[in-house]
Every structure is written in structure tokens, then in C-alpha cells.
Amino acid sequence: MQSNLAYFREDAMAGRLAKLVPGGHTATVPAATHHPNMASPVRFSAEPTSFLETV
């Protein structure tokens, strides 16, 4: 039996978890790899700030 490895991708798992939380969503920092906070600090900081402005 072959497993579906796409099921275990981090972005796929994050999407499934976000659907379980009312109002949940995911965010991606384009072109960032292991350290998105260093690759794109402005974008990385904008995501939680944007979320906090909605609560």
C-alpha cells in the first residue's frame, strides 16, 4: 500500500488544522524556507499583527 505523502506536507497539515478553528486560516511567506522571520521579517511580522487587529 502506497501512502499519500502530500497528506503530510506541513502546509497541508496547517490547512487541515486551520479548518478546525473558527475563523482559522494559514499564511505563507513566499520564497522563505527554514527561517521565514529572517528571509522576510516585514511580511512575517505583518501576519500576526493583521490577525490581532481582527480580535
Question: Could you explain the architecture of this structure?
Answer:
This protein is mainly alpha-helical. The chain contains three helices and no strands. The chain has helices at 10-20, 36-39, 41-52. It starts with 9 loop residues before the first helix and ends with a helix.
Helices and strands in order:
Blueprint: H1 10-20, H2 36-39, H3 41-52
Q: Which keywords apply here?
A:
single chain, 55 residues, mainly alpha, 3 helices, flat
Brief characterization of the structure:
The protein has 55 residues and is mainly alpha-helical.
Overall strand count: 0
Q: How is the biggest beta sheet arranged?
A: none
Q: How many helical elements?
A: 3
Multimeric status of the protein: single chain
Q: Overall pLDDT, averaged?
A: 82
* % residues in beta strands: under 5%
Radius of gyration, CA atoms, in whole angstroms: 14 Å
* SS-derived structural category: mainly alpha
SSE pattern, N- to C-terminal: HHH
